[in-house]
Amino acid sequence: METIKSRLLPWLEASFTATSQGKPVDSKVPSLQDTFDRERRKDPSCRDQDAQQLDADLNSTWSQLNQVQDDLAETEKNLEETKNRSAISLLAAEEEINQLKKQLKSLQAQEDARHRNTDHRSSEKRWGEPRSSEQGRSEQRSSVKRNADQRDTEATSDYEKQLRNLKEEIAVLSAEKSGLQGRCSRSRSPSPDPRSRSRSASRSTAVKVRSPSPNRSKLSSVARKAALLSRFSDSYSQARLEAQCLLRRCIDKAETVQRIIYIATVEAFHVAKMAFRHFKIRVRKSLTPSYVGLNDFENAVSDYVVCHLDLYDSQSSVNDVIRAMNVNPKISFPPVIDFCLLSDFIQEICCIAFAMQALEPPLDIAYGADGEVFNDCKYRRSYDSDFTAPLVLYHVWPALMENDCVVMKGEAVTKREAFWNSVRPLTRCRSRSLSPVCPRSHISLSTMSRSRSPSPIRCRLPRF
């Protein structure tokens, strides 16, 4: 209405005034059509500019909203994963601390009771012996006292060792518990009620599953297993990528780099298992004289192995792995490459594999062969795989197994040409050994797949 008034009233006023006074209409007075045309030319440009500005603001607002929603979803996912891992580790640490405290109290009570019984027996012997000869009594008393002192000294030393071990484990677990509690308190969860419900449920489950009287190695097996799984996952996500970067400086083909790292991992597990067997045999031989006729000999061996994992000679295993990789026929590489570049990676995998053998039951990697049928339960396909191919071209990372159960999935590359690569005979590759390989030995290595046991063919290779 205001627009009509502003456009129509001036024209009507000018026309009415001219008509009432008998004057002709001035041509300078703008007509209604001119006013309409001028307003029509002005308004569309303004409206178009306003509409474009509004569209631009709306699009930017939508993009910001989508980005904020994506960031929020990713943050919630990461927070939930961190919360779950922290809760599991915290529960395991709390349970182990409680069990170790109970064991410490029981050992202290046993030691006190033993001292009281020893004093009581010595007093009874002192008052019950015949009083025929004062010299005989003094000699018998001194011999009994010497024997009792010797037994007390041995028992006290054993108890002190056990107490020191328990106190050290309690200190380590307390530090780990405080760190996990700090991490949980720092992470802000959007829904505290579900967290408390899940925590109480997990605690009740842990109480139900807990055995009535497990020994110390079984108690610490849960925490050690969680720590080893975390180290194995970090090796896949960090150490493996660092090793790939080192090899890519000298090797351009990504497939060769991934094959080298996979073979290094498999060889590290194989060598670490052999070293663990030899270490356990040496422990049995050293503990046999002191544990003759006892039923808990295997438990003592397991406890000693768990407490002395730092005695493992990882550098010797690294050298064995590098020697095995040098004669592996599946790796083709230029002579300028030295596998000593992967020493840190191989040493970490050897230490992890050695510690995994001390678990009950032990953890091991799954056997994988090129050209085998892809198993979705054990492996996930790499990003560059053909997701419709049924056969494995080569493996990137092994799967971790506990008996027949998959604990952690591996990674494999599937391609359509995997069948033809498995049927086609292997070509001659360079050997990094000091002496050339004879044709007969090379053919036998090429036609036979490597087993997980020590290969007698490899031992017959000519070396100087």
Report the C-alpha radius of gyration, rounded: 40 Å
Strand content: 5-15%
Range of helix content? 55-70%
For the biggest β-sheet, the strand order reads 1-4-5
For the secondary structure, the number of strands is 6
* Total domain count: 3
Mean pLDDT: 74
Query: Please, how many helices?
Result: 12
Shape descriptor: elongated
- Distance between the terminal alpha carbons, to the nearest Å? 108 Å
Name the poorly predicted regions: 188-217, 423-464
What's the short story on this structure?
It contains twelve helices and six strands.
Describe this protein's structure:
The protein is built from twelve helices and six strands. It has three domains: 2-68, no CATH class; 69-128 and 140-188, Helix Hairpins; 217-448, no CATH class. The chain starts with a helix and ends in a 5-residue tail after the last helix. The strands form two sheets. Strands 1-4-5 form a three-stranded antiparallel β-sheet, with no helix packed on it. The protein has a three-stranded mixed β-sheet with strand order 2-6-3. By secondary structure, it is mainly α.
